[in-house]
């Protein structure tokens, strides 16, 4: 942070109270140096809300986010928890229930536009309900939506109206799940921004939340997005992120594999079919992600020689910045319908009913798990 008269130590935003900084536009308190001459001096996020009725995304590390969440259970609030259907288990906030207490939670499941048009929405709802329950999350309602296509938001606003009463509305979510789009829609529908952006806070509220005044005297509380290092989206740069993150409806790719065959997903991950009858596996990944098939016995050698070139993205320089790969082995029970989920990359559906032993190799820390099939 710049020292001296431009950014004196302890200078804070007069809108939300966060300490000002000019190093990272994605972190709370960002203010371009030239904006210091404005009166009042407010951070970029507050400025956008006040002047454009629009919030911008900021992020915090996991520990800081949990400190923010700990405030919500002490309030009388409605919580909107927004998650990404493409990265469901990676974007769900673990342990949310113990932080929000008895406050009602609306689960907004975003990016449904990525799912195939033939998706059975009743089955998908049952799947989300079951997964949320297993993760310990109690939801008042589950709403499917698409921020990109502006679908489902009317239904979400109806649910907000139904459950809010005279409560404040807290919006929480991980990075890259569409939280800002939701916040901006709430601002347009509920907020009277003719008044000044609030400078008052509730007792004990930390400084990284922005309180947006509503017409009835309550507030929308815009919380920073949480960064989970277990998601690929937190490990890679913008160029590779545009490849790995799906932005169009998924086109499932089916591979007929014999045991002893391997699939490489660029240089991001590897799937081994170790043991089982000849069967098919369906890959649900971004359409920009190249997939390369090889023999398991050649897989290590192939990566050694071609990572960052034939097996790309990422390129060699970016691969060298990622953590060393870790192997995750799974035994698929006979007759089960299962996905191998890789946070931020997508999932592989096991179609055979005769059982299988498979393994996934990804950088250490990336969340990999076996789950009931989404589709």
UniProtKB/TrEMBL annotation:
- Domain CP-type G: start-end pairs: 66-229
Molecular-function GO terms, alphabetical = GTP binding
The protein's matches in Pfam families, at most eight in alphabetical order, are given as: MMR_HSR1, YqeH-like_C
Superkingdom, natural source: Bacteria
Instruction: Enumerate the InterPro entries for this protein.
Output: G_CP_dom (IPR030378), GTP-bd (IPR006073), GTP-bd_ribosome_bgen_YqeH (IPR019988), Mito_lipid_metab_GTPase (IPR050896), NOA1/YqeH-like_C (IPR048422), P-loop_NTPase (IPR027417)
For this protein, the record's NCBIfam families field holds: GTPase_YqeH
Name of the molecule in the record: Ribosome biogenesis GTPase YqeH
Gene source species: Paenibacillus zeisoli
Gene encoding it?
A: yqeH
């Amino acid at each position: 942070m710049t020292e001296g008269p431009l950014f004196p130590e302890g200078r804070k935003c007069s809108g939300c109270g966060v300490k000002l900084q000019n190093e990272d536009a994605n972190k709370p308190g960002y203010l371009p140096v030239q904006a210091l001459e404005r009166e009042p001096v407010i951070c970029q996020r507050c400025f956008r809300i006040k002047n454009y009725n629009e919030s911008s995304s900021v992020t915090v590390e996991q520990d800081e986010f949990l400190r923010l969440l700990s405030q919500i259970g002490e309030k009388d609030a409605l919580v909107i928890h927004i998650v990404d259907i493409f990265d469901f288990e990676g974007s769900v906030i673990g342990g949310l229930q113990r932080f929000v207490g008895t406050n009602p939670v609306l689960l907004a499941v975003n990016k449904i536009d990525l799912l195939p048009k033939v998706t059975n929405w009743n089955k998908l709802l049952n799947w989300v309900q079951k997964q949320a329950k297993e993760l310990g999350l109690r939801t008042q309602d589950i709403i499917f939506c698409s921020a990109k296509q502006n679908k489902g938001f009317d239904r979400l606003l109806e649910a907000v109206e139904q459950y809010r009463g005279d409560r404040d509305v807290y919006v929480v979510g991980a990075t890259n799940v569409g939280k800002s789009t939701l916040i901006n829609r709430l601002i347009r529908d509920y907020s009277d921004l003719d008044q000044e952006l609030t400078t008052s806070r509730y007792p004990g509220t930390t400084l990284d939340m922005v309180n947006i005044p509503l017409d009835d005297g309550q507030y929308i509380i815009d919380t920073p997005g949480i960064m989970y290092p277990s998601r690929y989206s937190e490990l890679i740069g913008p160029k590779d992120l545009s490849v790995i993150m799906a932005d169009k409806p998924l086109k499932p790719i089916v591979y007929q594999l014999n045991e002893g065959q391997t699939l490489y997903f660029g240089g991001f991950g590897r799937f081994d079919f170790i043991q089982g009858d000849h069967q098919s596996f369906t890959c649900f990944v971004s359409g920009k992600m190249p997939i390369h098939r090889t023999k398991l016995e050649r897989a290590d050698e192939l990566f050694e020689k071609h990572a960052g070139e034939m097996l790309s993205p990422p390129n060699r320089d970016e691969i060298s910045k990622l953590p060393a790969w870790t192997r995750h082995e799974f035994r698929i029970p006979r007759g089960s319908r299962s996905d191998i989920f890789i946070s931020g990359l997508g999932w592989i559906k096991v179609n055979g009913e005769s059982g299988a032993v498979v393994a996934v190799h990804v950088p250490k820390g990336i969340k990999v798990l076996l789950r009931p099939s989404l589709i």
